[in-house]
Amino acid sequence: MSFLDSDLILKEIPLFSGLSVRQREIIKRRSNIVEYKKGDIIYQEGSQASGLYCVVLGRVVIFTQDQSGNRMVLEYLHRGKYFGIISLLTNEPHSVSAQAINDSMLLVIDRKDFDFILKKIPTLAIDLSRTLSRRLKRKDVHQKTIFESTVISVFSSSSRSGKTIYALNLALSLKKETHKSVVVLDILPVGNTHTLPQRLEIGNYRIFDLSSGASTENVSCAKDFILKSNFDVDLICFYYRPDEQRCMKMLVAVLTLLVNDYHYLILDMPSAMDNSVCDILNQSDLVHILSSPERGDLLRTRDLIHNLKTTFNFPEEKIKIIINEYKFARLSYAEQVSILQRPVSATLPKIEDTSTDRILLDNPQAEYTKAIRRISRELSGSMVGLVLGVGVAY
Predict the structure, then answer these.
(1) Closest CA to 225 of 280, 186, 271
(2) What is the phi-psi region of residue 132: left when phi exceeds 0, alpha when psi lies from -120 to 50, beta otherwise?
(3) Tell me: the pLDDT tens digits for 90-105?
(4) pTM for this structure?
């Protein structure tokens, strides 16, 4: 089966799932799958309506802007959600803008085909008219509650940087500080061993393989691989093949499902500089890069950030450098900043008690715990009092 199966897509989109096979065939012939890169504007506020859009893969943000260019987010859309309908049915210009947050695939029905479909499928016209009525009423009565997910990739060029320990404790801290849903994605090349199940005291577990055998038909089964821990943080383990570009698209498809259910998605990335890793980093909302205070690691971190900025146009303000002082720092802070050519967001002190990996829970007074707690509070916007205001705020 190809990566995208049009019949399966139409069955999974709630707007079309209740239609007959013949009716879905009409829509299949009169629609197209269009790819948008991360950051692409799908349509601008004030532009004329050109079609109906349904999210197949990726995420879309709906927003407005004032005269000063300040953006107000109205809604985040994920797989199965459709938009552009109000302007299409009212024949008025778009009152909002739509932008792809990740590399996205949308099912698009242009205006001419849309009118044809409504004539052929009157029941769809009735459903859409009811939707229009509800949305217009909701728009007048109250603002929609926004469910916002944040995808955070944790990466390091060194395999012994404490990356996985950091990802685990950041997830535990976000759960503790925000009481919101958190899932960790443990991503490794095929053949490597996942360590997070053991660290979260999870026994038997399955690994979701993103490589050749995967398709959109079984992406919907990804939730069956979710591992529940006793620490209120969920986990999914993944395998990928660095030489298969489809793995990245498969991961985006999985993220499209998970962002509907989790406020924070922590991606524990492999310490490898292959194209797949860079592609996945680019799909994240934030990237936390761990480095030791040694010159070689600092230089590799600097080069990685340069690559993300120049190759993917990734915003530098979304990249956070975390120095882990598990090694003795021979360089001063000023020398570290000079090598990196950008500020350090936070420093993790050496872990004194090595008997546990869940430092945040098992040793709440440790200096490492306090540093993680500050980072998670900055990340979640839950800083309390001036005493917690040290560091670079998100």
Answers:
(1) 186
(2) alpha
(3) 888 999 999 999 889 9
(4) 0.80
